[in-house]
Amino acid sequence: MRLLLRNGRVLDPASGVDDTLDVLIEDGRIARLEAKIPARGAEVADLAGLVVCPGFLDMHVHLREPGQEWKETIATGTRAAAAGGFTGVACMPNTVPVNDSRSVTESILRTAARDAVVAVYPVGCVSKGQAGEELAEMADMFEAGARAFSDDGQPVASGLLLRKALEYSRLFDVPILDHCEDSGLVAGGVVHEGDVSTRMGLRGWPGVAEDVVVQRDVLLAEYTAGRLHVAHLSTGRSADIVRRAKKAGIRVTCEATPHHLALTDEAVSGFDTNAKMNPPLRPESDRRALLKALQDGTVDAIATDHAPHHADEKNVEFSRAPFGIVGLETAVSVCLDRLVHGGTIGLPRLVELFTSGPARILGLAKGTLAPGADADVTVLDPNRRVTVDPARFRSKSANTPFAGWSLRGAPVMTLVAGRIVHDGR
Amino acid sequence: MKLRSPHLLGIEFLEPEEITAILDAAETFAEISTREIKKVPTLRGKTVVNFFVEPSTRTRSSFELAEKRLSADSLNFSTSTSSLVKGETLLDTARNLEAMAPDFIVIRHSEPGAPHFLARHCRSSVINAGDGAHEHPTQALLDAFTMRRRGRRFPGLRVAIVGDILHSRVARSNVLLLTRMGADVTVCGPPTLLPRGIERLGCRATHRMEEAIEGADVVMMLRVQLERMRAGFFPTLREYARLFGLDGARLRLAAPDALVMHPGPINRGVEIMGDVADGAASVILEQVTNGVAVRMAVLYLLAGGAERETAA
Amino acid sequence: MPAPERVRVMDAAEIDRALTRIAHEIVERNKSIEGLRLVGIRNRGVPLAQRLAGKLAGIGGCPVPVGVLDINLYRDDVGQGTDRPVLRRTEIPFDVEGAGIVLVDDVLYTGRTIRAALAGLVDLGRPRHIQLAVLVDRGHRELPIRADFVGKNLPTARAEQVEVRLQETDGADEVVIVKPREAKAAPARKRTGKPRGRRR
After folding, report:
1. CATH number of the CATH domain containing C119
2. Residue C170 forms part of a structural domain
3. Which of A57, A133, A183, A340 is most deeply packed, by most CB within 10 A?
């Protein structure tokens, strides 16, 4: 099986390539990258005017299977990923049951082998039952295929537990992904605490409730020499903490979501439950600080925190609606439009944030088009105009605040191990 | 005069002219309440559902009386929050209410935005009778009406609102209404009970009661609830009363003819001392009386609402 | 659409004469003006009632109290797409109970305004009797109502509008028929509160 991608602009920040090249794929791997490669019987895709990138990775996705298949399944979630330009997703362990053991990790991977159209990297629980008390069997899960550990959905509330997790995970050098939130300080908050919460009479979720945990986690990462990854960074202060920690040589990485980069808490005006997420949308000052953190390298990856919920679950009073929005099918367009065309970062940096950035954090041999690498490829049309239409999502859920947005730039083709899993050219 | 929206969801959406129109209409209805026969046939044949998901005897009674005096048929549909959590969703309740084809739904709910939710899903006119800590527009309107009937003019009127601003829909609606009408509003409470960015609504904020009250033309006290003490917003009711209770000595700092207001029910000896609540400056019971007239005015004006504008 | 034709049918002197005649008829009908009360229907019934009261006082030798009635709360078209007129207060400074009342309005047309006024009046008490005085009766009744005292009977087409303008409210005394130029013009709708005068 040979496939030749012709005339595209090949953009692979990991190997420093940015040129109009042909890409020859053989047996699921990148065979050659050259100016003119003769077809010689290979299937040819002409990608003139398009950008050929390493496969995009989303390191923060809730696939909901097992246990909440009315929201999403591995089959639908990975199809949404493929349509959104992603070739691999890391799935969070807050399923039912939670992924806190080898058997659940294996079960997810078995289902993925059968149903998934993109790669699935399970994230295991930090604690047994995600209860925040005792360490889960990380080594078992690692051997089964888990590539990171997290109690996401919940913070690792206990400093002692986090310390142990950071220490224990050094056995296999995987990161602990923390959802940084001091639940006591959040105190039932549902939107950012500030002008909007005050105006709307909604309980506030202050930025400082994230910051204190990010700071604690960074100090523990320093103390333990473990690897910390801060999930969905949402405040300028947290970005500062991570920036300083990196400068001090502490092993910390972080991710930001497209929605925190593109929206502010004003989006909840009108009590739109599709703008309710955790951490909440922040004010413009925080959004700007996150953009700066994208530019200066503080942020390592963009991840969607894809959190599907059934329409009925969201169609309730604001405070009662579950947190979270879907992101897989909007992320790349939102980022191309707002970040690249918006002038915050260049396309190479964006590609890095979606490819080598998350690959490095998860320790995956992915995120590059270097010869020999797996032929996971994302093809972008940076100028295609798209209108977000939730009715056409592959995801089972449509809870997005971007419905109706007209965006410039879109993923148009996705290849996993040399196989075309989505072709929207 | 016609209100632009078929709903009254909050002061947020009212223009000053609309506020004035409601207060003007309320004058007429206040007169009706002084008659032998306190009833007019204006809304005969209209159905009003009073949908109260949070207990409230006085607001519901006030609406009920307003509806009866306008000859509307009212139906009380009360349910506790807990049964809603266990049972049907607000969406299904809304659909059930809608199936009864009411002309109005008056909703009191513990969740901010519940009236807005209802308005999105129902054809009836929705009136917000208090949604969580968000808005309580008819309360702010009746407060303004009470000030106006007492001869106060809004431009430059100095109003102090004292108490638990954080959890108070009365405070929010009053700040919005009074600042929109040109009044000079100061909110005051312990730092733990002043929401962030409250000044952005157009008022001033202070933690010192004396500063808030000094020279005020109107002193509006808010009810403080025991559960706030349990949640740690202040140490004890005793200390709260000492710092933020309105007594005669503090009231003397206000303008000589200052009005004392309270949305009720009052906690005597906590946020307001008995002698002040019963004193000459207090218009607390007038607020209750005026509430009926203002709610009649709202129902009357919404009955000719924008939704049906094209019928002619 | 061409400008409508305006035909003046009463001038100030005619209006005054009509009111004088009505005042005499009221006295004649009621034998005495003692216990008689006038109630003007907002808006233009009010100055008419005041003028009548002045004339009655002159004839009968004692003052006749005048009340003001706002009928908007008694209208039968609430919520039917009509503009909400500005609500004004009803101000009746006497006890309606047992009183002999003359209701005063400018134009009698469908009778719906008078029906609303009657409903409004009886809510205030049980008068001994209610009579009706109008400056103009233009016909086209939709309810079984007639006036006891009429200044001028004015045959009109439904498509026409009758505009009463008074010194107190409009700066001049006159009654005008406004005829649409086009035969197919929409039927006249009752409109109130127009700044130019009450068109009916």
Report:
1. 3.40.50.2020
2. yes
3. A57
